[in-house]
Amino acid sequence: MQAETLMNALVLTKRIGNLLNEIMDISQQLAEAVDRGDEVTAGMLISMRSEPIDKLKVARRALQELVEEAGPADRERLSALLGGGKAADSREEPLEKQAASNARQSEKVVTFERVLNRKVTRDKSIFQ
C-alpha cells in the first residue's frame, strides 16, 4: 500500500476515534444532567453534541472517499483493515489497531446512546 494513502487513512481513523471519545464524554455528562434533573445543562449538552457528531460524519465520509479513490489493491487492503482485518506488515499495524479501537468505541457509543435515549424520552424512545 502506498505510504501516503496509509498515513491519510490513519490520520482520519484517529480523528474518528477522538470524535467518538468526545461524543461519549458529552453523552455521559448528558446522562448525569438528566439523572440530576438539570434540564438547562441537558439542553446545552444536547446542543454541544451536534458539533462532534457532524464532524464525525464528515470524517467518515472523507475516509470512505479515500478508500474509493485508492487504486484497486490499496482499496482492497484499506477495506480489509477498516473492516477488522489483520495487518499484512508492521506499517499497517497502527491502522489495524486504530480501526479496531474505533469499532469498539463506536459500539460503546451506540449502546450508551440507546440507554440515554430511553432516559431522556422515557416511553417515547426511538429504540424499542
Would you kindly provide a written description of the structure presented here, covering whatever features stand out?
This protein has 128 residues and is mainly α. The protein has helices at 3-36, 39-69, 72-82, 93-121. The model has no long low-confidence stretch (mean pLDDT 92).
In summary, what is this structure?
The chain is mainly α. The chain has helices spanning 3-36, 39-69, 72-82, 93-121.
Supply database-style keywords.
mainly alpha, 4 helices, 82% helix, 128 residues
Silhouette: elongated
Biggest sheet features? none
Strand content: under 5%
Overall pLDDT: 92
Order of helices and strands: HHHH
Number of strands: 0
Number of helices: 4
* SS-derived structural category: mainly alpha
Distance between the termini: 44 Å
Radius of gyration: 17 Å
Ranges where pLDDT stays below 50 over 5 or more residues in a row are none
Helix content: over 70%
SSE layout and pairing:
Layout: H1 3-36, H2 39-69, H3 72-82, H4 93-121
Helix pairs in contact: 1-2, 1-4, 2-3
